[in-house]
C-alpha cells in the first residue's frame, strides 16, 4: 500500500467520523436545493423549468460547501504535530497533501451524486448525450481538483484550524453571486458584472449547456481556463507554504 | 526496506555524534555551537529551562530542521547526505502528543504499521504486542480523544516504536503528566534501554535526568554549560549545608556568632551552615551548640542535588550575560 493510499484512507475515516463535515458537505447542499427549487422555485422566472436551470448551480454549491472541512483538516495536520511524525517517518510530503486532494474529490463526488439524485426526484430532465454526460463529469472533476488545491493552500496558510475553515467562506459565497440561482442579467449593477466575470459562472454555463444538449464553446474554454489557472495557483501556493512550514 | 545494512553500532560506538551545532533565526542565536555525543545503548539527557534550545536541538537531530553549521551523524549516517537511513533508524516522540484524534488507539498504531509497510499478519502482531505492553489493550478501540494525558503519551511512544527504531528521541516526555504516569513513563524508558535502544531525552525536570540518564548535559541559552554523569555534576557544586531553625531571634543571633561562616535568615529564624554532612562534622556542630546552651527547634541536612547544579550553573551564566 503506498503512503498516499494510507493517507487517503485516513482522511476518509476522518470524514466519515465527523458528522458536521458530512452535514456540510452532503446534506446542507441538498437542503439548499430543496429551499431554492421546491420552496422558491416557482417565483423565479428564468424561461425554463427551474429545476433544469438550477441543477448546474446546485452542483457547484455542493462542490464548494464541503471545502471548509478540507481546509480545517489540512490545518489540523500541520498545527497538531502529527505532520512531524510523518516527516520523520519519511512519508513523502506530497503524499500528505495528495491524500487530502483525493479524499476531497471522493467526498465531493458523493455530494454531487446526491445532488443529482435529488434533482432527478424533483423532475430534472437533461437532454445530454452520453458524450455530454462524460464532459459534465470531466468539468466537475476539473473544478473539484482546482478548488481542492486552492483550499489546501488556504488551509496550510492559516494560523489555526478555525481560521482555515473560515477562509473558505468566499468560495462558498461565489455560487450565490454567479448565474447559479438567477441569470446574471437580472442582477443589479455591480453584482451583475461580478457574476459575469467570476469563475463559477462560465463553469455553470458550461454545465447548463451540456445538460441542455447545446454546449457553448466560449463558456467551456473560459471554464477550463479558470479551473486550470485556479488549480495551478493553488498547487504552487500550497507547495510553497508547505515547504516554508519546515 | 526493513533489512538495514550491517551498520548496527556496538556498545562503544556513538549513536549520535554532533559537533559545533549552530542555529540562529535572524539575530536570535538559538544554538551557539554545541557538541552532543551519545554512546549507543545509553540514555543521554539534555537538561534546560524553557527556551534553552532543547526542542531546536531535537528537531535538528531528527532531520526536521537544518542546522546553520555543524556536522551530525545519527546511527552511523551523516544527517545531510544520508537522510533516509537516519530516518529509518530513529523514532521521535515530541512534547505534544502527536496522535490522530479521530482514530482509535489501535487504528493509530495500524496507521504507523501501514506507513512502515509491515505485512498484514506482521502489523497485527506488532500492534497487539504494543497495546499489551503499554497497557492500552482495553482502550484499543476507543477514540484517542477519550484518553488521559498519560495514555496519550504512552500511545504516542508506542506509535514511535512500530518502526523498531534504534535511536529514540523523547522531547519532554513527561511534561504535564501526573506523578504516577511520570513513573510509568520512566519504567518504560528503562525497558527500552534494556532492549538495547539509545535514548536522547530532553527535560526540565532534574529528577528525571537524575533517575534515567547515564550522562546529562545542561543547556542554557544555546550553550552547554556542563556535562557529565549525574554524580559528576553533583560534585561540581560545593558540598551541602545544614539548616537550623530557632524559636526566637536572640537564639538565632547567638548561634550565628558561634558557628563560623553561617548565614542567618531573620525572617525564617533559620541558619544555614555550609559544610559536609559527615557524622564527625555534625557531631562537632551539635557539641558547639550544646557548649553555648543554644536550643535548636529544627534540624535538617541538605545534600546537593541536580537542582543545586542547575541553579548555580545557569545562575552564573545569567549574571555573566547581564554584565
Automatic annotation (TrEMBL), chain A:
Regions crossing the membrane: 21-41, 53-74, 95-124, 130-152, 164-184, 220-238
Main location (coarse class): membrane
Topological relation to the membrane, as annotated: Multi-pass membrane protein
Claim: Coiled coil is one of the keywords in the record: no
Compartments it resides in: Cell membrane; Membrane
Family: Belongs to the ABC-2 integral membrane protein family.
Protein name listed in UniProt: Transport permease protein
From TrEMBL, chain B:
Topology within the bilayer: Peripheral membrane protein
GO biological process terms, semicolon-separated: daunorubicin transport; doxorubicin transport; response to antibiotic
One GO location term (cellular component): plasma membrane
Gene Ontology MF annotations: ATP binding; ATP hydrolysis activity
Subcellular location: Cell membrane
This protein's UniProt keywords: Antibiotic resistance, ATP-binding, Cell membrane, Membrane, Nucleotide-binding, Translocase, Transport
SMART domains in the cross-refs: AAA
UniProt key word Cytoplasm: no
Location of the ABC transporter domain: 16-246
Gene3D superfamilies linked: P-loop containing nucleotide triphosphate hydrolases
InterPro entries on file: AAA+_ATPase (IPR003593), ABC_transporter-like_ATP-bd (IPR003439), ABC_transporter-like_CS (IPR017871), ABC_transporter_ATP-binding (IPR050763), DrrA (IPR005894), P-loop_NTPase (IPR027417)
Pfam families in UniProt: ABC_tran (PF00005)
NCBIfam families: drrA
Family, as annotated: Belongs to the ABC transporter superfamily. Drug exporter-1 (DrugE1) (TC 3.A.1.105) family.
UniProt protein name: Daunorubicin resistance protein DrrA family ABC transporter ATP-binding protein
Organism annotation: Virgisporangium aliadipatigenens
Amino acid at each position: 500500500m503506498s503512503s498516499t493510499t494510507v493517507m487517503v484512507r485516513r482522511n476518509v475515516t476522518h470524514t466519515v467520523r465527523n458528522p458536521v463535515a458530512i452535514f456540510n458537505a452532503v446534506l446542507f447542499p441538498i437542503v439548499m436545493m430543496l429551499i431554492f427549487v421546491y420552496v422558491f422555485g416557482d417565483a423565479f422566472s428564468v424561461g425554463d423549468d427551474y429545476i433544469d436551470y438550477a441543477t448546474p448551480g446546485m452542483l457547484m454549491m455542493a462542490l464548494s460547501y464541503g471545502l471548509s472541512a478540507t481546509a480545517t483538516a489540512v490545518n489540523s495536520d500541520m498545527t497538531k504535530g502529527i505532520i512531524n511524525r510523518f516527516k520523520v517517518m519519511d512519508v513523502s510530503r506530497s503524499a500528505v497533501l495528495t491524500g487530502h486532494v483525493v479524499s476531497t474529490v471522493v467526498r465531493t463526488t458523493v455530494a454531487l451524486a446526491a445532488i443529482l439524485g435529488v434533482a432527478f426526484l424533483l423532475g430534472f430532465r437533461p437532454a445530454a448525450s452520453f458524450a455530454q454526460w462524460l464532459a459534465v463529469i470531466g468539468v466537475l472533476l476539473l473544478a473539484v481538483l482546482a478548488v481542492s488545491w486552492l483550499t489546501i493552500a488556504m488551509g496550510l496558510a492559516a494560523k489555526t484550524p478555525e481560521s482555515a475553515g473560515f477562509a473558505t467562506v468566499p468560495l462558498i459565497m461565489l455560487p450565490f453571486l454567479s448565474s447559479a440561482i438567477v441569470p446574471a442579467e437580472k442582477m443589479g449593477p455591480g453584482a451583475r458584472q461580478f457574476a459575469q466575470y467570476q469563475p463559477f459562472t462560465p463553469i455553470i454555463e458550461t454545465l447548463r449547456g451540456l445538460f441542455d444538449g447545446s454546449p457553448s464553446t466560449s463558456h467551456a474554454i473560459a471554464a477550463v481556463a479558470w479551473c486550470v489557472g485556479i488549480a495551478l495557483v493553488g498547487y504552487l501556493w500550497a507547495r510553497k507554504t508547505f515547504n516554508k512550514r519546515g | 526496506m526493513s533489512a538495514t545494512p550491517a551498520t548496527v553500532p556496538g556498545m562503544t560506538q556513538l549513536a549520535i555524534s554532533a559537533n559545533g551545532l549552530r542555529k540562529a533565526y535572524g539575530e536570535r542565536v538559538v544554538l551557539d555551537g554545541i557538541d552532543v555525543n551519545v554512546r549507543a545503548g545509553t540514555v543521554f539527557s539534555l537538561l534546560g529551562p524553557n527556551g534553552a534550545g532543547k526542542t531546536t536541538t531535537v528537531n535538528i537531530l531528527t532531520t526536521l530542521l537544518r542546522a546553520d553549521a555543524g556536522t551530525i551523524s545519527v546511527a552511523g549516517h551523516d544527517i545531510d547526505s544520508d537522510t533516509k537511513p537516519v530516518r529509518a533508524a530513529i523514532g521521535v516522540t515530541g512534547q505534544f502528543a502527536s496522535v490522530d484524534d479521530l482514530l482509535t488507539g489501535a487504528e493509530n498504531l495500524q496507521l504507523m504499521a501501514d506507513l512502515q509497510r509491515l505485512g498484514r499478519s506482521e502489523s497485527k502482531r506488532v500492534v497487539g504486542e504494543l497495546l499489551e505492553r503499554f497497557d492500552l489493550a482495553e482502550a484499543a478501540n476507543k477514540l484517542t480523544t477519550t484518553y488521559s494525558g498519560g495514555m496519550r503519551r504512552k500511545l504516542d511512544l508506542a506509535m514511535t516504536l512500530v518502526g523498531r527504531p534504534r535511536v529514540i528521541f523523547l522531547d519532554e516526555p513527561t511534561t504535564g503528566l501526573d506523578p504516577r504516569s511520570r513513573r510509568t513513563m520512566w519504567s518504560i524508558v528503562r525497558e527500552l534501554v534494556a532492549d538495547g535502544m539509545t535514548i536522547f531525552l530532553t527535560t526540565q525536570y532534574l529528577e528525571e535526568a537524575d533517575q534515567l540518564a547515564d550522562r546529562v548535559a545542561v543547556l542554557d541559552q544555546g550553550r552547554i554549560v556542563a556535562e557529565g554523569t549525574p554524580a559528576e555534576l553533583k560534585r561540581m557544586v560545593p558540598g551541602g549545608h545544614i539548616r537550623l531553625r530557632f524559636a526566637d531571634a536572640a537564639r538565632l543571633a547567638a548561634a550565628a556568632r558561634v558557628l563560623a561562616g553561617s548565614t542567618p535568615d531573620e525572617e525564617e529564624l533559620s541558619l544555614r551552615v555550609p559544610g559536609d554532612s559527615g557524622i564527625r562534622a555534625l557531631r562537632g556542630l551539635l557539641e558547639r551548640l550544646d557548649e553555648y546552651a543554644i536550643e535548636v527547634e529544627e534540624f535538617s541536612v541538605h545534600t546537593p542535588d541536580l537542582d543545586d547544579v542547575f541553579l548555580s550553573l545557569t545562575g552564573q551564566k545569567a549574571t555573566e550575560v547581564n554584565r
